[in-house]
Structure of TetR/AcrR family transcriptional regulator:
Amino acid sequence: MNGGLTTALLDGARDAFARHGYARCTLEQIAAAAGVSRVTLHRRGISKRVLLAALAERATTDYQAAMWPVLISNQAPPERLHRAIDVLIEQAERHMAVLVALGAQSDEIFHEPGDHVDTTRSVFTEPLERILDDGRADGSLRAEDPAEVATALFNTVGWSYIHLRTGHRWGPDRAAASVRETVLHGVLRTVRD
């Protein structure tokens, strides 16, 4: 890995963030979790912010890889959307400590650079947008503006799930079922539509 950021170091940082919280976590705790000395981190110029950025990049790559099979699936758009929401929840659970740390710092990683703070980065929303566009085309999903609905879905699913897990201390199954049911009823076409 680049700049001395080994997998063991990133895993240690993730575990230390989960155990202590980003704000309270020290470089000593990260070093101990990674099996290195704090001096090693200092010599390499590795800070909590550097580690968080690398973990965020790893989470983004994992999200893209997990969404790919959903995008290339032959399933109908409603089934693909259901699976995409499950993937989003699974990725939120897998990278919970990183996402909580990012939310406590700044959510700039999720936004396009510049003045476009109202736009979530396409790397996160494009898979959902493609599914919504397919569903709009075949009449199975409600999405007048797939890009806007994809942004709302990504944020609603991800942040609601994280809040229910961390703020309300709901278990993964309960939080996932609640979020999934709530959002899917908003975009799936019913017989009444």
DSSP finds nine helices and no strands in the chain.
